[in-house]
Every structure is written in C-alpha cells, then in structure tokens.
Amino acid sequence: MEHNASARINPYVHGARGLFCLMVFVYHVVHSGLPTFDLFARGLLGEALQTGKFGVEFFFGISGIVILPSLYRASSAVAFILDRYARILPVLWATVIAIAIFGWLSGKRLSLLLVGANLLAPPPFIDIIQINPAAWSLGYEFLFYGVCAVVFLISGVSRPLALALAVTSLILLVYYPRALLMIGGVLIAEKYLSSTLWQSLAKYPAIFFVLFLTVWRGLELASATDYVGFVTPAYLSFHDWISAFPFVVLGGVFGTIFLLGMSRGNGLFGRMLRWQVMQWLGTISFSFYLWPPIVMAGVKLIMSRMGLVDALGSGSQLFFLLVSLPPSLIIATISHRFLEVKVTGQIRKRLDRVAKPAVRPINKVLDGTQGGNLMGEQSNVLDCSTSHRRKTIAS
User: Fold this and answer.
1) Does residue 16 have a pLDDT over 70?
2) By C-alpha distance, which of 256, 258, 251, 259 is closest to 206?
3) pTM confidence score
4) Choice between 43 and 377, residue whose per-residue pLDDT is larger
5) Rg over CA atoms, the chain
6) Terminal CA-CA length for the chain
7) Are the CB atoms for 256 and 364 separated by under 8 Å?
8) CB contact at 8 A, 360 and 116
9) Of 270, 144, 159, which Cα lies nearest the Cα of 205?
C-alpha cells in the first residue's frame, strides 16, 4: 500500500485481494494430499476447487491496475523500486527465514546459498527451488516493477529503446503466460477499455470470472504438465504450444473483462467485495498469502504424528481446512500490523530521505518539463511494458 493510500483505495479491488487469497488458501487445502470426500475430489465441484490456484493470476491483474498509478505518484523511478522492495521484503524474508530455521531444527538443513537466493525473489527465468511455495509469484512481481520503472526512465531519453524493451518484455510474457493478466490490468489502469462494448461486457463480471477459470483449467489439463509448466514452450512441443496459444489469449480477454467489471463494482461480485470480511481479508492479503503454507505444513505434520489422518479418513481434508484457517488468519493479522505497517513504514521513512534526490521526479517527466515527450507517449510505452508482475498481491 502506498503513502496516504486510504484516500485512493478502490474498495472493490481491495476486497478482491481478499477473495483471491481465499481462493489460493482453499487450493492449498485441496492440494494437501489428504483424503477427502468424493464430492470434493471429483466432478464439477472437484474441478472448481482445483481452480483456486488461479487466484494468483488475478493478483497479477490487480498489479497491472494499481502499480502504474503508484509509479506516477512516486518522486522518482528509484524511489518507486525501493518502495516496492520495502513493501514486499519484510514479510518474504520473515517467512523464508522461519522455514529455514524450522528445516534446520528438524534436521532438513537448507544451504545458505538457496536461502539467500529465495530472499531475493528471483525472476521466473531463474529456476530455483522455492523454500516458501507461495513466493514463486514475487519473482514475476519484481520483474514487472523493474520493467515498468526502466521503460519509464528511458522513454524520456530514447523512445525506440523503450519500445524495444517493452517488446522484449511482451515476448517474455508470452513465454510465461501466467502473468498475462498484467496486460489487462495495465489496459484498465490506462483507460484503454472505456468503449461501450467493453463496459457493457464488464457489467457481468461473474460470467467472465467463470469463463476465465474454465479456459485456464482446460489449458492446464490439455497441456498435461504441472502448474509450474503451465502452457510454456519449455514444457510443450512447438505444435502443442501454438495450438494452445489462441486459448491463452481468449483466457486473457475473459480475465481482463472480469477485472474491469470487478474494479467498477459491477453485479453481485461488486456487492460481495464490499463486505466487511472481504475488506479485512484484503487488508491482510499479502501476509495471508505467504504465511499459510508454513502453518499448513505444521498442522499437517501434527495430524500425521497424532494419527488423525487415519482416524478421520475422508474427513481429513475438511478438518485440515478448519484447523489451519484460524491460525493462518491470526498470524497474517500480526504480520500485517508488525511487518507491513510498522517495519515497512520505518523503512519507507528512511528511504524517502535517501531516494528523493537520486533521480529526476516522475511528475516532471509526465508533464514534459524534462525528456521532451509527455504523457500520451509515456502511457503507450508503459502499456507495452506490462510483462511481468504478482500478486498484487503485493501492492
């Protein structure tokens, strides 16, 4: 969240963060490997529960919506990047260090090199083992932030160079289609989807929510790879990838229409996102995204050692959900108040004093007083650069 963010928060986007976090949490339960009832494992409901993982894609879309305005408000591109690091790293580092300590105490020693690499949240093209399985998306986030900031900086110096970087970023995005909705988010933020047709379709966000999940789940099943290799050329033959790509684009269109309608509070979705519980979940969403895998690992270990899995049988997964959720919410709330508010707040105060004189202010670039080009060209370049971004989760 940005300084003075309360005056700029879109309550629908804020509530959506809570919804998407809840989706991811449910997916972790479903994917726990614990026995469950056939009702939850098969058929339409079973497939629907499997789509909870795609809440991360929607987080990427939220990133596209909120990050460009955040960049415009920043005093400089350097200040923007430092602010993003201050926003994300305290919680990320706390979870990674907690997992490393737990591993060392339990005899599963993790190398310092692996722990250090995880603390940096490397981009997706650097393949490393994720100590915190939920943190994979942060590499997309940081790459998206960096691309936006660099394009913004160099566009005032060399627009062809900026466009070249933007095109390169889009090529990377094609290779990693899970971040596709970042483009949709940027289009929404830059008001490129204001035509009557887009607005009419966006009146029914629930329909396009279901359509996106259906297409994305179908692509996952058709690609016959795990989610890590989702429709990427590295995991598919060229023919299969080309065959799947039109459906990737279709899914991106459906997801973008959903994000547009959601961000405007349309339909039942809009009313639901204004609920107090959704607003609260939106507030703690980043911590609620990163801490539950650790809590769940502990609960699952206790269940196994106490013989509860054998005793509960098909009820194990439901019990796991009910027991894991309360401590996950409590820890996320504590993490938000201490790490996201207090620690990040202190870091931001120090960074503000350091970063302000480092680079020319962005608002001067925008009004054309430096660099020669202006707002219209800048917006178009940024639109092209939307390649990689996460969970807004982290914005």
Assistant:
1) yes
2) 258
3) 0.85
4) 43
5) 21
6) 5
7) no
8) no
9) 270
